[in-house]
Amino acid sequence: MINSASTEEEKKVRETVTKFLLSSINISNLNNDDNLFESGIVNSLFAVQLMTFLEKTFALEIGMDDLDIENFKSVNATTAFVMRKKSWQKAEAKP
Amino acid sequence: MQYLLTEQQKARHGNFKAFVKENVEPFAEEWDREQKIPESVISMLAKPGYLGCSLPQEQGGQGWDTVTFGLLNEALGRGSSSLTGVLTVQTMVSKALLKFGSVEQIQKWIPLLAKGEIIGAFALTEPGAGSDLNALATEFTRSDGGYLVLNGVKKWITCGQFASLFLVFGKLGDRSLACLVPREAPGLEVEPIRDLMGFRAAGLAKLAFNNVEVPAANVVGKPGFALSHVAPVGLHHGRISTACSALGLLRGCFEESIAWAATRRICNQPLGDIGMIRSLIAQIGTDLEAGGFLCHSGCRAADENLPEAFEKAVMAKYFTSRAAVRAASDAVQIQGAAGCHGSSPVSRFYRDAKIMEIIEGTTQIHEHLLGGIFVGQTHRS
Question: Which residue of B has its CA nearest to A20?
Answer without folding.
Answer: B307
